[in-house]
What does this fold into?
Amino acid sequence: MLNVLGTPVVEADRVTVAIAGRPVLRGVDVTIREGEFVALLGANGSGKSTLVRALTGLRPLTSGRVRLFGTPLHDFREHARIGFVPQRATAAGGVPASVREVVASGRLTRRTPLRPASRADRRAVQDALELVGLADRAHEGVSTLSGGQQQRVLIARALAGDPELFFLDEPTAGVDLPNQQALAGALRTLSERGATVVLVAHELGPMEPLVDRAVVMRDGRVAYDGAPLSLDAVHGHHHPFETTHDHAPHVGSPLDRLEGGR
Amino acid sequence: MSLLDLLALDFMQRAMLAALLTGLAAPAIGTFLVQRRLALLGDGIGHVAVTGVALGLLTGTSPTWTAVVVAILGAVAIEVIREQGHTNGDVALALLFYGGLAGGVLVTGLAGQGAASLQAYLFGSVTSISGADVWFTLGLAVVVLAVTLGLLPQLFAVASDPDFAQVAGVRVRAYNLLVAVLAAVTVTVAMRTVGLLLVSALMVVPVAASQQLARSFRATIVGAMAVGGGAAVAGLLISAALSLLPSRPTVAPGPAIVLLALAMFAATWPLGVWLRHRRRVLAPFAAEEPVRHEPADIHPHQHGDDCGHPAVQHGDHVDYVHDGHRHAPHGEHYDEH
Ligand SMILES: [Zn+2]
Ligand SMILES: [Zn+2]
Ligand SMILES: [Zn+2]
Ligand SMILES: [Zn+2]
It folds into this structure.
């Protein structure tokens, strides 16, 4: 395995989640290490989104344990280290909001209530907008953007808090190919900076070359955990272990971080 | 007595100050209610507060104080019911609303007071505002404004995306309760000018008017405060001016204020419809390549800057929307995109 020596960032230990009495996750064990780019794959209803909600504390565990950066989830307070990109439905509310306003709320993990935004806060928002290529749309209403652009806004919001660990819940669902490519570009930059990425996806598309490791969920359990497979294998057809790992060697990435890391 | 004489009166000046602050505070908190699609929360709290007023009349304490306490209790109850997400949450809220209104009327009767004394609280009344009431209103309105605007980033995050806010460490439940309590305080503040039955309108209608034109949350809240403050002061003046007519009609300020706010909505709404239509027509097409090269049929018309067809960005060029087709210039002809 790659990154065997990395510090565990996310540890899920026999995680079980029941929703309205029905078990949705059953005894899930996953450990994600610093710098990994993990794709959580699976069909609808396989539990992949529920797993991310359990790992971020949005969904209470029925049993089992979750640790983030070595701290039990219950005691975890370093919210600035986590960037969360929820499914897109939640982007627009009943009142107009500008792209910059939405992205700026990603900075709340580092801001003190009742204090105005500092120069560093505004800088971080601007950088995040530039990384996703929406700096020129900052003053427009979020609801006037296309679905793919709204998704990029949500990624910029997570970026603005300058986190080390990203959870992205289906960022490519319903997004056109050019926007998927823009998303993949932003995630590549993050990954190269040393961030750990946990990506829930139905299909990887342009993200595929970024993925170090695939965790395939089926019916609430981990069905496969290892090097990424081709999509056919994910969906349970033939040739299960044909690991074509053709992208840049990842043995280099821990060393890269020694000099260029945060 | 002329309107100017009226304006020189102490109680009238107090009433105008109270109306201005009410008109600013109600839409400020109302913006968050509209964002969370809880536009009728203020209405529910208003109904519950009627019982509070009645308890004040019955016990001989200031109805303003009893209304604040009961309104806050009601708002917290509504928020708890909402958060529990019961499927019959609607019905539970309705029970609270009607219980509050019926209880209020009943208790007022027990207190030996007629409908007239309650009417002043239901639809507002300038003349009933005492000096002490004004300071109370001022104080509460300033608190509501300071907290709402000071915590705007947090309240915005919680109202627009609670899941994200929670993962970011913002205490979603505490902020939702804070909004409910602020809404309750606002209801009590507005009780003297717009009255309990119309207070929700002052929380919601200015926001509806403002969001027709605004593109950002901040612009919406500022615009709504301008509409609310303007409508409240002007509505109060209209109600005072009408009382000077020879027939001496008594028009409560509440209805005048609300009708003015509605008029402002009616003025901005067509503009908003037009802006949204324009934005939709000119929204860029997905930057996908055309499936194949397909020249348009015989095409005598020349598309250009002001040819009358919307020019919509498509990747690195524009498509002209023409009779349901998308025509992109290509050399001497147009392509179907
Ligand atoms: Zn034309
Ligand atoms: Zn085109
Ligand atoms: Zn044409
Ligand atoms: Zn052509």
